[in-house]
């Protein structure tokens, strides 16, 4: 009986993408650290509702300037490229789970700033797409 309830709960969570939603909301709380977290969450949920109604991808934790900062952290010598390992670490840290294992530059172990931003943006869009599916 308990196993059936757990299975039903898991199906429910997966169907409604609730784990992804909670992960995204929690990440936003930690990133922005608002003075009034409950009001912040209400605002984000209202944005999500609008995203769902309009079909537009929901709020994203990282914008272009944030991606530039992440890349610079991984490239302190300003070589304008990072290794594949650094690329995977950065995307994982940003909460992207389905990472492209063959981005441009992987064979040379040189992932350019441009490639990193493209891959990060696409990965974040896939993460945010869960908002539209609520």
Structure characterization notes:
This protein has one domain (1-134). The protein has six helices and two strands. The chain has helices spanning 2-15, 18-32, 37-54, 64-74, 84-93, 113-132, and strands at residues 81-82, 111-112. It has a two-stranded antiparallel sheet. Helix 4 packs across helix 6. The longest helix has 20 residues, at 113-132. Residues 62-97 form the EF-hand domain. Pfam families: EF_EFCAB10_C.
Write the layout of secondary structure elements.
Blueprint lengths: L1 H14 L2 H15 L4 H18 L9 H11 L6 E2 L1 H10 L17 E2 H20 L2
Antiparallel strand pairs: 1-2
Helix pairs in contact: 4-6
Pfam family, one: EF_EFCAB10_C
Protein name: EF-hand domain-containing protein
InterPro entries: DD_EFCAB10, EF-hand-dom_pair, EF_EFCAB10_C, EF_hand_dom, EFC10
